[in-house]
Amino acid sequence: MLTDIDRSPRMELPLLDLILAQCQCGRMRPRRSLWAALAALTMLATVAAAVSAESLGTPGWLAAAAGVLVTITLSVIGWLLERQNGQEAPSTKPEPRRRVPAVHEVRDRLTFNIHAAIPLNEPASEALSDVYPTYIQRDIDITLRAWLKERTHDAGLVVLVGPTAAGKSRTLFEALHAELRDWRLRMPTNGTELDDLIRHEPNLDSTVILLEEMQDYFTSQPLTAHRVKSLLLGKAGRVLIAATIRPVDIEAIVGPQTGIAQEMNKDADQVMKMLADSSSWRPGGAERAIRLDLKPHLSTTEQARAAEVAQRDPRVAQARDRASEHAVIPTLAGTTELIRHWTGEGNEQGQAVITAAVIARRCGHPDILPEAVLVAVGGALLAGRKAAPDTADWFPAAAGWAQQPVRGQITALRQVRTQAGRIDGYYVSDILVGHSIDEQHPHVTAALAADTTWRQLIDVATHQACGDIGSAAYRVGRREIAESAWARAADRADKPAMRRLALLLYENGERTRARYWLDRGVAEQDPVAMTLLASIEDHEGRPERAEALLAEAVEQGDIYAMGQLGFLLRIHGRGEEAESWYARAAESGDANAMTNLGYAFLQRDDLDGAESWTQRAAGLGHAGAMQNMAVICRRKGDITGRRKWLQRAAETGYALAKGDRRRIDPWPGEAGDEGISNSILEYAAALLADGDPDESLLWYRRGSELGDSRCAAAAAALLDSDDLRVRAAELAYENLRLNRADLRGSYGHDVGVEPHLAIMRTYATTLRAAGHEPEALLWDARVSRLADPNVPAEGSREVWHPGSWRWRSEPI
Questions:
Q1: How does strand 413-416 pair with strand 425-428?
Q2: Residue 102 DSSP code
Q3: pLDDT bracket for residue 31 (50, 70, 90)
Q4: Least crowded by CB within 10 Å, which of 547, 744, 756, 789?
């Protein structure tokens, strides 16, 4: 039963608001919307009068008369308004979408993050650009441009790697203008913006997506690996992702793949794993993702080209005169002048501002630095030197000095403005940031070693910046600082900070607080928090809850959660359901899911289905998928194909491991290295079976070099080498000490653990036969302890890592 209050005419204002809003949005023309509003008011007035009459007992004719009177009054008002307005106003049209420029239309150096160069100080040919010195062709240009030319037929990812001022951005600029000049150029500012672009514009055919300073796309608003994979599969058309990054930044964003670091680095690690080394690429090759390394100094052939260019461009001639020939590129960028401005004789307060900017960047702060950050950190530096500013308004003059050009347009610090009349912050030259790392700048090094510097920065930074500062602190082992920074960001519902804080607390044994932050992340609809919490729920014996969380993450669009849901269902014996989820993840570009799906087809002898999915994963650089392709070829009787795929798997895996030692240090075991060690082991065995013991031994040695005890044992048998037997036993012991639970969980005891125990037993027997009984007993004890799953490995404990869904052993 409704009360009298409930029966009141509630819809009057919302209905009128809707009509007026439609008018404002251009859905109705003004005159029509005015009459619609008057008609609505008339209707509402009449209804209101009728309801009031019913409620109050007023005669109906009187209520109707009141309604008519309201209508007449409003109509007169409407007539007067229309007469005042004169003729009907034109309809409001939606603002046209901004045109996306072509590559050749964008020549601004800041767009491509190209350093300012030393100026033309003398009259020169009009053919010379005031902005860009004449380009010196680099050795990688032939490979880069040939690879780009082939991308006119499909999608691709190219990453130029090199130190600061090596010429990465200019090299990429020239190559894109030469080969893809008519393609559209997109420049997202962060990973989330790129994700949104791909989601809302499914057709990006003939588009270059420029990611200068690639590391910045994997911070607090990260680019997701599955988006990159989706692009490489051509789901948005012919799209090229073109990026630059420094080697030191690769180390920072990839990092170890355990615990919190895995969650922080997962997307960056997966993207970097997609890249084939340029040395392995040949014209017509299948690699859609490639890495090219640019050396910090000019090679002999590049120096010869620079000498030829110097005859036409006086800037290059000056650079060659002022520096050793191989340092021409840094000299053109004014490196010497920038460093002198910062560290030589100069304005102490201005130099402190530059130092503060470098420190903030080294602490993980995003590259646009607010004034408050520079004032706080710079003021503390000056106070520490007993040179605190006399007045509170010291910063403008100091910043002005720091921004003075050191030569031409080259500056150590520059303002960043996105709106007229407002300074967003300041950008410090990355040349100086790189110099502080290479040369261990004393003031920067001392500041980074002090907790007070980090805490002071956290106090004045935005909560978004605190998320990145926490990640930088964790990477250098400052766990307490990381917790403080992440806590500040998490309090403002920063999703990456909430889950990283949760993982840190989980590692510290604070499970209740960890669950609180994961629950907060789930409430904020963070799919990554859902997958992490699902891992914990399954580990603690609640698979139904884990399944529900993963399903919710899938609803949020998380491709990784699809694969994890397939994994969860498979380990709980629901193979057919698992396969359907692997298929969904594979369709979305997940190479691991493709490999798992192909393996599922292989297990039931559907070789065509297995080949289809496995070959797609192999095309994305997955070494395990390449190894599975060899198995498929063997079952089909294709001996040549088997040998080809085994070789490709071994070469790819070895190059990946050598390119980034953190893939294998600490040794992840054959269950956690994405098929690298198994690929090398099987290829070496195939070479031996084919009558090529020398090449086989080479690959067994390579596997041993990476850390595989099985390869070391095989090499020891071929050479009858006691030294290799010792190494094999030590590697087997280390592998089981670190990865026993993971090996058992992935392969079972007989396949995962027993081969390594056998290597250790063999070594104990060898020692005993040589009369070294005490040492043999030591190895016997190790075998006995590691063979029993209920006995912990010596000096370590087995810990569950939610981010990887794996057990890892950690030192006690």
A1: antiparallel
A2: B
A3: very low
A4: 789
